[in-house]
Each structure stands twice: as structure tokens, then as C-alpha cells.
């Protein structure tokens, strides 16, 4: 367990502590890191608690972009009209995380940094096309969320960096999305498979063709993946039942799942087809 515990009050102080203690772990909600430490995963002798750092807990919307600070919780997202209207898949994914008590403490940034392919909010944010602001000793850099993950529980964070802000393009009037999760029970369950779909339409009517498509799949590969084949099959045509069925079948091609205690690889492939079909049908 840890020997040193720091509670900085500014971002600059936090970054200085990270430089001074390269092996330190950051604590925001603590719902992942404390479980990992209890299991002996990624041990450390130093914790840096972010909860007193000024200006990190916020959700702000400027019309085109929704910004989440590093300390924004899942309950903050659920309670935010801007997130429900402009980032619905993220709000739906946040509602699926843990129990109410967990959602009141757990941060979305923490869910991203834990980097499990079963983490619900990652799938939603990949489909939404989020960008991450990473702060470090040399300033700040922006990284598309698809480039943030390098493997199971591995990210592109450099030593001394932290995830300061999540930037989500708002859906707008012609862009719609949905998140769906399959678990072994209705609540407090790790995903067997999860899916997020975000589509843009070239027009307002039921026959309007799809102009852009993003279909993200969780729990079927070492990281969250997108189904390029399914996306390409949707673009340029209306979202008809036939197009939906075709895209759902093609989504299977993006899967490279494993067998584990929650489900077999074969079951996950079939579940992906069903969830993508259901997600696209809801958007239609």
C-alpha cells in the first residue's frame, strides 16, 4: 500500500508532484485505483489526490463542444441537460456505470484512464469523436480518443501527464446517437458487450441518407474498436431495415473477442450483431 499521500490545490502543484514522484497514482473518485491497489495491480507508494484541485470539476457547453473537467462524475453527466441533449450516448453509458453511490464519486476521466475495453464511457466517447486534453510539464496537447489507447489498460499518457479535459462534439439537429450495453444482470455489471452508434443525416426526413457513421464496440478486442465495414455500408443511403441488418452483420468483422467468465468469444460475436441492429433501429 501507499506510504505518501498528497492533496494539491492547483494544477501546477499537481504536475510538480508528478514530476517529483514518477510512480505516483492519481486519485479522483478512487473507485478504480483503490480496487487495483487492493488487488496488487500497478502498485505505488505515493498517491496524489486531485479532489481539491481548483477548476477541474465542471461540464461546460458552448454549442458546438461539450467540455468535461477531470473531476466531472458520471452523475454530473447524467444531470447535465447539455450532455443529455448533445452527448446522449455518454449520458446513457454513465447511467450504466456501477450503482448510484459509485456514479456520485467515479469520474469519467478516471473511467477513460483505467483503459479497460469493458469500460462503458470509452465506447460512447469513441463513437462521439471525443478529444482529450493532456496536461504535462511541457504544456498541454490534444489527442483524439481513438489514439489514446495502446492496448489493454494501456494509454498514450506520458510520464508526468494527466487527463485534464474531455471535449465532445455536440450532436446537433442532424446527428443522433445511442449507447447499449449487455451485462449478466440489469445493474452493477461489467459489460459482456457494449455498443455506441452515432450517425449524421443529410436531411431531416425518414428517407434522408446517412452522411457519416461511427459504430464503436466494447469488450470485443484489446481496446474499443470501430467497425469500418458497417460504417461504410450505411453512408450514402437511408437507414432502412435492410441497411440496418446489413450493417449489423458487418459489425461482426471488427470483433476479436476472448472467452472469459462473462461470455464466450462466439457469444460476443452474436451479441454484437444483435446490439448493433438494436442501436441502429433505435436511431431510425
Descriptive terms for the model:
single chain, 284 residues, alpha+beta, 5-stranded antiparallel β-sheet, 4-stranded antiparallel β-sheet, 11 helices
What does this structure look like?
There is one protein chain. The protein is of the alpha+beta class. The strands form 4 sheets. A 5-stranded antiparallel sheet has the order 4-5-10-6-7. A 4-stranded antiparallel sheet has the order 11-12-13-14, sandwiched between helices. Helix 5 packs antiparallel against helix 8, helix 9 packs antiparallel against helix 10 and helix 10 packs antiparallel against helix 11. The N and C termini lie far apart (51 Å). The longest helix has 19 residues.
Q: Count the helices. How many? A: 11
**Structure summary, number of beta strands:** 14
* Terminus-to-terminus distance: 51 Å
Low-confidence stretches: none
The general outline is globular
Q: Cα-atom Rg, whole angstroms?
A: 19 Å
Largest sheet: 5 strands, antiparallel
- N-to-C series of helices and strands: EHEHEEEHHHHHHEEEEEEEEEHHH
- Mean pLDDT comes to 96
Helix percentage: 25-40%
| Spatial strand order of the main sheet | 4-5-10-6-7
Structural class label? alpha+beta
Strand content: 25-35%
